[in-house]
Design brief:
seven-stranded antiparallel beta sheet; alpha+beta; 7 strands; elongated
Length: about 150
Amino acid sequence: MLKLKIISFCFVLLMVSCSCQDSNEKVNHQIVFSDLVHLEKLTSVEMRNNSGTFNLTDAQIKKLKTELNQMIYAPHMSAKVGAIQIKLKINNQDFYISTATHGKYMEIPRDLVNQNQDLVDQAKWLYFKTNEINFDNYKELNKIHN
């Protein structure tokens, strides 16, 4: 009987230890753009920045995906954005995201979140830290020159 109590106690201790470890990992994990938005079906991007309005090339879209995916979710944040507009076409639907020139934050509509929706607020707009990405570095590359 004593062995059974000891085994039960060890089992309970092990279960509590595992659940605490899992809980700490979730608390310490920063939510990034790629946790919430799956960009696999992104087919085109229209950029509006200080260089004008233009469509990104495939190489530029690949770079943009990498930069967006690393942005960190900033819950309960509100920021002034608007100088730079980016239209993402995903599954034949347009989504507009915006930031400011040298802006620290990007604003995205919650409708863009297509995975792990339980990780974010129910707010209409969500904010992400841009990691100091300079979206003005994107220039029109697919223009035909005569």
